[in-house]
């Protein structure tokens, strides 16, 4: 078997006219990070709301939260991408649908990808928020009531500040997941890092150099996030708490 | 979008979707689960081994694969497997490997990392005294693992292993990036041919939802039943 290694390929011009191959990979990384960060904002906001719903005393709100989580958890991310990209514009009112379809190239795929990744991850964040709130002693909720706080006040001033600090470590791994999951957006033509590596392989035939570079970039990003999370975890750790809400391993990635 | 929801396209193509597409998806899921749990358990034993180089190799492998996207891993193996095959049979040209074999190897090697972490937690959940008791009875490493530790670890972790398999079942849809006819691949071929994207992808979503929801309910019930009372 003969494979012609050529590590100099990264400094050659890529045919998309964007500069060197190395440069296109880093532009891809930029899209990956933009996608992951925007989706993360949606995931945190929605996940917090749904997670709270699942712990409220109201049976109907609890069921609503449960339905939301199960809906997003039981459909593959790829299929959800297709639903947002191909199906959603057809189901919304015609004017809005046409507007979505006519968005100029990167945005037409990028916006559905952000929405998809955000809602998909929000279901997982919601489970962490629920676990965090449920890990608190029951007495805290009762104490809130005894002090005359309303239910929203109890959440705002008693339960959430504690729960959110407890679930910082599992949220960190969810953030790592959202970076990895953003690669699925290449199926709807978002040219993020993995798609750029694939394109580089197609143009230059240097398969293993392209994928090695992408792998190293992902590992580097991973390392940076892990270090930042470790710092954040130390900052917000609740004194006296050792474990975290989700200390038993959960399936998934 | 022309006209209303067209159920007919599903009626016309369901045989193809299930007997070609879903059959591939299920076969790949089951074989990858078996292989993944087998290699995952071996990796977990390596990670917990007192032989440092073994623990280091397994740890690096698992952590690396867990840090990169599955899509990238699928591409890696798709291009790597023909070269590995050529090296194994000492051929000069990369050998041709079928879609099923290639994706099976990918998912076994990838999911093994996730099964490994589950099994590692399972093995660590067994009190250390039990291993010592095994050694005291004259069992060697493999005997005390095989007869004492692993059976209990599997039992404790069965619900998580099955939940990971549901994740695997969903992940298999990503072979779509290699244009393989799995369930999603079959549906997308029909969708493009007949211009029925809305119908096909909604149908696929419903099928996955029903299957995964039913399975996760089953796992939940199983979890309650097999919990060991201590």
Can you walk me through this structure?
The complex is a heterodimer of chains A (253) and B (230). Chain A is an all-alpha fold and 253 residues long. Chain A is 72% helix and 0% strand. Chain A has helices at 21-53, 59-73, 77-91, 94-101, 105-134, 138-146, 151-166, 168-181, 193-204, 207-236. Chain A is globular and about 70 Å long. The mean pLDDT of chain A is 88. By secondary structure, chain B is mostly helical. Chain B is built from eight helices and no strands. Chain B is flat and about 70 Å long. The termini of chain B are far apart. At the A-B interface, helix 2, helix 3, helix 8, helix 9 and helix 10 of A face helix 2, helix 3, helix 4, helix 6 and helix 7 of B.
Which structural traits does this protein have?
heterodimer, A: 253 residues, mainly alpha, MetI-like fold, B: 230 residues, 8 helices, flat
Instruction: Supply the number of structural domains of chain A.
Output: 1
Classify the helix fraction of chain B into a percent range.
over 70%
Q: State the oligomer.
A: heterodimer
The CATH homologous superfamily of chain A is named MetI-like
Low-confidence stretches of chain A at least 5 residues in length (pLDDT < 50)? none
What's the CATH topology name of chain A?
Answer: MetI-like fold
Summarize the biggest pleated sheet of chain A: none
Going by helix content, strand content and strand pairing, the class of chain B is mainly alpha
| Largest sheet features of chain B | none
Give the CA-CA distance, first to last residue of chain A: 35 Å
Number of distinct helices of chain B = 8
Q: Got a strand count of chain B?
A: 0
Name the structural class of chain A.
mainly alpha
């Amino acid at each position: 078997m003969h494979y012609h290694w050529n590590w100099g390929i990264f400094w050659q011009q890529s045919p998309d006219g964007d500069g060197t191959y190395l440069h296109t990979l880093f532009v891809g990384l930029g899209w990956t990070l933009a996608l992951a960060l925007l989706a993360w904002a949606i995931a945190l906001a929605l996940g917090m709301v749904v997670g709270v719903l699942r712990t409220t005393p109201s049976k109907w709100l609890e069921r609503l939260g449960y339905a939301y989580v199960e809906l997003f958890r039981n459909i593959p991310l790829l299929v959800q991408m297709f639903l947002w990209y191909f199906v959603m514009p057809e189901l919304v009112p015609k004017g809005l649908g046409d507007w979505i379809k006519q968005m100029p190239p990167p945005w037409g795929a990028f916006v559905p990808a952000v929405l998809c990744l955000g809602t998909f991850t929000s279901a997982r964040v919601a489970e962490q928020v629920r676990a965090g709130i449920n890990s608190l002693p029951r007495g805290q909720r009762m104490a809130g009531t005894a002090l005359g706080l309303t239910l929203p006040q109890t959440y705002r001033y008693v339960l959430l500040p504690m729960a959110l600090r407890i679930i910082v470590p599992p949220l960190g791994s969810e953030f790592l997941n959202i970076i990895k999951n953003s690669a699925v957006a290449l199926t709807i033509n978002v040219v993020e890092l993995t798609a750029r590596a694939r394109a580089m392989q197609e143009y230059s035939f240097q398969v293993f150099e392209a994928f090695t570079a992408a792998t190293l970039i992902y590992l580097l990003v991973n390392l940076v996030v892990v270090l930042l999370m470790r710092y954040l975890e130390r900052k917000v750790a609740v004194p006296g708490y050792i474990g975290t809400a989700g200390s038993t391993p959960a399936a998934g990635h | 979008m022309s006209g209303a929801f067209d159920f007919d396209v599903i009626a016309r193509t369901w045989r193809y979707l299930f007997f070609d597409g879903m059959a591939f998806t299920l076969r790949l899921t089951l074989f990858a689960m078996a292989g993944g749990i087998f290699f995952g358990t071996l990796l977990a034993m390596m990670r917990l081994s007192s032989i440092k180089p073994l623990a280091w190799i397994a740890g690096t492998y698992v952590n690396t694969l867990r840090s990169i996207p599955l899509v990238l891993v699928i591409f890696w193996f798709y291009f790597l497997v023909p070269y590995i095959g050529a090296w194994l049979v000492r051929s000069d040209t990369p050998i041709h490997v079928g879609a099923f074999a290639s994706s099976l190897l990918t998912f076994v090697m990838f999911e093994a990392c996730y099964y490994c972490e589950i099994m590692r937690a399972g093995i660590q959940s067994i009190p250390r005294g039990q291993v010592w008791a095994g050694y005291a009875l004259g069992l060697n490493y493999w005997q005390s693992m095989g007869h004492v530790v692993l059976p209990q670890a599997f039992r404790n972790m069965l619900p998580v292993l099955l939940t990971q398999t549901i994740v695997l079942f969903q992940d298999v849809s990503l072979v779509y990036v290699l244009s393989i006819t799995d369930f999603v691949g079959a549906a997308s071929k029909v969708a493009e041919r007949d211009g029925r994207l809305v119908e096909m992808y909604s149908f696929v979503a419903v099928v996955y939802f029903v299957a995964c929801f039913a399975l996760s309910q089953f796992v939940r019930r199983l979890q309650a039943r097999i919990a060991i009372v201590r």
